[in-house]
Amino acid sequence: MDLFGPGRSRVCRDHALITPDSFVRSPLPGWERTEGVVLIAPRMGARFTQFLAHMQPGGTAGPAAAGVERAVYVLDGSLVVGPLGGTERTLTAGGFAFAPAGTDLRLRAETTCRLNVFEKRYVARPGAAAPRAVVGREQDVEGQPFLGDPDARLHVLLPDEPAFDLAVNVFRFRPGATLPFVEVHVMEHGLLMLEGQGVYRLGESWYPVRGGDVIWMAPFCPQWFTATGKTPAAYLYYKDVNRDPLGADA
Asked: Which of 33, 55, 133, 224 has the most CB within a 10 Å radius?
């Protein structure tokens, strides 16, 4: 143990980098036989929550709190989700599920299972229907070249429709690929590095990042990424979409 507190984690006004050596496990309300790591939450200024759920075999989770929608991505293990149309689905690594607010979508771990979970309060859009439940596998979602770059491919997991007020995507980069410009936008992000390594610019700081790291980006935080090393890099990320920026809850 190094008593001088080394580490790469940093929490700032408009961004945060939280690395696995800083993770602290705790119980998750509504989850049984599960330990959670709450990584991003409103207490730090975010308008959503991101956490890891470490489920033991037989671990369960009921629906999210009233008015809250939930998106789950399986990192490893085997997870049963349902009921959906009266049936259950089994998801393994790369599987994902989205439960709209008010949906009784339950989770049960068949094996030791690790999940990334995003939750936010649903914001309705006048004239748009409520979103529907979605279950799928990232492996079945074709990645599209981002702004024409075949070395940076975007896998869009949830439908890009007015009903949805959030997006969950996986971005995959070949070594040396980059975001094409420094982005500054109204959306905020929660991000989990799935694999590989790179450098992320957040605000006026540049951070080395690798698989397992988590990043929060507030609205209008300048951001940019490049994949380094000899293996591909990938990250899972959330953003808020399709809502009026003047809306009280947008």
From this structure: 55
Residue 7 half-sphere exposure toward CB, CA atoms < 13 A: 16
Give the number of other Cβ atoms within 10 Å of residue 192's Cβ.
Answer: 24
Do 197 and 209 touch, CB atoms closer than 8 A?
Answer: yes
Long-range contacts of 21-27 (CB under 8 A, 24+ apart): 23/52, 25/54
| Torsion from C-alpha of 228, 232, 238, 244, nearest 10 degrees | 70
Q: Give the model's pLDDT for residue 2.
A: 66
Place of tokens 């971005």: 171
What integer best gives the mean pLDDT of the chain?
95
Query: pLDDT tens-digit profile of 74-116?
Result: 999 999 999 877 789 999 999 999 999 999 999 999 999 999 9
CA distances from 236 to 9, 96, 138, 146, 245 (A): 19, 11, 10, 15, 24
Report whether 187 contacts 237 (CB < 8 A). no
- The neighbour count for residue 87, using CB atoms within 10 Å, is 7
**Which residues, in sequence order, are CB contacts of 54 under 8 Å at separation 6+?**
25, 34, 35, 36, 37, 112, 113, 114
| Structure tokens that stand for 153 in this block | 């491919």
